[in-house]
Amino acid sequence: MERQTATIRKVTPGCGAEVLGVDLANPSNSDMETIRAAYRDYGVIFFRDQTLTPEEHIAFARRWGEIDINKFFPANGEYPEIAEVRKEKEQKVNIGGGWHTDHSYDAAPAMGSILVARELPETGGDTLFADMYKAYEGLSDGLKKTLEGLKAVHSNAHVFGTAGAYKSSDQASGFKGESMVGEAVHPVVITHPLSGRKALYVNAAFTTHFEGWTWAESKSLLEYLYAHAASPEFTCRFEWREGSVAFWDNRATWHFAVNDYHGEKRLMHRITISGVPLQ
Amino acid sequence: MSQNATRTRHIHVRPNERGFGAEITGLDLSKPLSADILAEVKQAWADHAVIWFPGQPLSHDELEAFTLQIGPFGHDPFIAPMEDRPHILELRREPDEKARNFGAGWHSDWSFQEEPPAATILHSKVVPPVGGDTLYADCTRAYDALSDKMKGMLDGLVAIHSAALPYGTEGIFAQEKEARTMKIIVSKEAEKTCPHPLVRTHPVTGRKALYASPVYTVGIEGMTHEESAALLGFLYNHMTKDEFVYRHCWQPEMLTMWDNRCTLHYADGGYDGHLRVMHRTTVAGDVPH
Predict the structure, then answer these.
(1) N or C: which end of chain A has fewer CB within 10 A?
(2) Phi, psi (5° rounding) for residue B194?
(3) What is the pLDDT of residue B19?
(4) Which residues make Cβ contacts (< 8 Å) with residue A227, sequence separation at least 6?
(5) Which of B76, B109, B138, B259 is catalytic?
(6) DSSP string, A130-155
(7) pLDDT value at position B1?
(8) Which of A140, A200, A215 to mutate to test the interface with B (most CBs of B within 10 A)?
(9) Does A220 touch chain B (CB under 8 A)?
(10) What percent of chain B lies above the pLDDT cut of 70?
């Protein structure tokens, strides 16, 4: 069979791109170049009609770097590299049901995650993404300048700790690693390690305050930034289908798992790739 | 503000126990003050920012003469002064008046001017039996209470001030339906803007204070309205916390002098059905820096 040429198609003007005509189980060198360019330029890329086995999922992820094994998520019993994003019929709480970027509480936050749909509800369970380059570029010059020197503290105790959100929910039994919670400090505006572009790097799930400011002082500016960054013109909404794969860059995007499919099961396989300290 | 009783030779200064402002007795404001007494009054004003002198009946001439001992008159726009008294505003609200009482929003007087008044002097003639308090916010302690990192961020910012919200041609007074005794002059002039540092250094005490208010500050230079609102909204809530606010209760024939460079104030209402009459002067100030 003749190979198609990989092409890139934007999803919305503000966020995301679809990469067409590639087989992630067996990408050519030129496909990989196209995928790398799309990943660098768009921050989140989508693939349709893929047939990745868990082994092929792992192999594709290894092309990008070390696999970062999640300390907190339920792991797939057979493949420790794969974290399960699972919601059973009877569960009410989903995983990732708020704007966030993965692992921002680590000193070297994860580069990105590759999420593969395994079992989907009839409808619903979409994922929203927001572009943090666009969010930064949408700020006034005055606020850009004000944010330039600021750093923010990111923590996960309130999410993954003993008294955290998941351990207090009907997802409690799958989550682990309560004693491994921690925090990290990152610049509020980062220069992206792949693109060299500036991106806003705070998120509502894990950022607790600006370094050196009290929580009360930080709150109104952070909340402004969260509302601004989630503006519809910086976002897209990905509707999962059988064979769909999303690959996002945690330093360039946020994501939000919509929890609108109660009574149905949804199972996704996530592999997360290690990143670098941010500047 | 330091709340230690000030050591004075001539006047008696009683600092407010709740952290802010002082009452001054032991002098007669209707006569020219000696150099020593004037120096003590100015020192108490620098120490406490809001000072009040109970039991001081004053004629208009005497109010003007006291004001000039503090400094030259300021320039008062947008409100018609008393006839033949270009430097005195009469803040008068009749018992049957329905218009919102004057000054009912946190502000620092005329902060939209290039050289806003250093002092405002308000003398009470008729005080209602209920309501009509004036609230003062201590912008020096409010600044001091912020974290060092946030102070560092604020220190470089410039706030834009304008009189448009109250006095502009589409402002609050322009749209007012109820009759008002005071003669307000709405004007295009009010829509001009003037930049001042968001944190200003007091020219006498050298202390830093937040300098912005919801009435006259329209934004932060270089930022959008929404971005400014996020930062300024936090600051307004912070500055007007109970711990920084003094509620001043008036008596007839009381003179109060406040420092617009380091305080905000708010005229409380609650006296419908009662007459309230006050006379106000301002003392010129310098360019905030």
Answers:
(1) N
(2) -145, 125
(3) 74
(4) none
(5) B109
(6) EEHHHHHHTS-HHHHHHHHT-EEEEE
(7) 45
(8) A140
(9) yes
(10) 97
Determine the distance in angstroms separating the CA of A134 from the nearest CA of chain B, rounded to an integer.
Answer: 16
Q: Which of B147, B226, B231 sits opposite A214 (nearest CB)?
A: B147
Which pLDDT score, from 0 to 100, does residue B2 have?
A: 47
Residue owning tokens 């989903």: A94
Nearest to A242, CA basis, from A268, A271, A272: A268
Q: Are B252 and B39 in contact (CB under 8 A)?
A: no
Q: Whose structure tokens read 């929890």?
A: A259
Q: Which of B87, B123, B279, B280 is catalytic?
A: B280
pLDDT at B5 over 70: no
What is the distance between the alpha carbons of residues B67 and B29, in angstroms, rounded to a whole number? 10
How close does chain B come to A210, measured CA to CA in Å?
A: 9
- Among B28, B19, B32, B24, which Cα is nearest to B8's? B24
The reply to whether residue A140 touches residue B224, judged by beta carbons under 8 angstroms, is: yes
Minimum CA–CA partner of B221 in chain A:
A142
CA distance B227 to chain A (A): 7
Rounded (10°) angle between helices B225-239 and A215-229: 160
Mean pLDDT of B138-148: 98
Q: Give the residue from B251, B65, B33, B10 showing the smallest Cα distance to B24.
A: B10
Q: Which residue of A has its CA nearest to B226?
A: A224
Tell which phi-psi region holds residue A42, choosing left (phi > 0), alpha (psi between -120 and 50) or beta: alpha
- Bridge partners (DSSP) of residue A128 are A237, A256
B107 is catalytic: yes
Q: Is the dihedral of CA A71, A75, A81, A82 positive or negative?
A: negative
Q: Is A255 a catalytic residue?
A: yes
pLDDT digits (tens, 9 = 90+) for B72-95: 999 999 999 999 999 999 999 999
- Min Cα distance B142 → chain A (Å) is 12
| Neighbouring C-beta atoms of residue A80, cutoff 10 Å | 11
Tell me, yes or no, if B109 is annotated catalytic: yes
Neighboring chain A residues of B227 at a CB cutoff of 8 Å? 139-140, 142-143, 224, 228
Contact A220 B231 (CB under 8 A): yes
The predicted pLDDT at position A70 comes to 79
- Inter-chain contacts counted by CB atoms under 8 A, chains A and B: 56
pLDDT at A3: 62
Which positions ≥6 away from B236 have C-beta within 8 Å? Answer: B106, B212, B213, B214
Q: Assess A230–B contact: CB distance below 8 Å, yes or no.
A: no
Residuewise pLDDT in 10s, chain A (279 residues): 456 789 999 999 999 999 999 999 999 999 999 999 999 999 999 999 999 999 999 999 999 999 998 777 777 778 999 999 999 999 988 888 899 999 999 999 999 999 999 999 999 999 999 999 999 999 999 999 999 999 999 998 887 777 777 777 877 777 777 777 789 999 999 999 999 999 999 999 999 999 999 999 999 999 999 999 999 999 999 999 999 999 999 999 999 999 999 999 999 999 999 999 999
Cβ distance of B150 and A219 shorter than 8 Å:
no
Class of domain B6-163+191-283: alpha beta
At which residue do the structure tokens 């949804």 appear? A266
Query: Tokens standing for B130?
Result: 């209920």
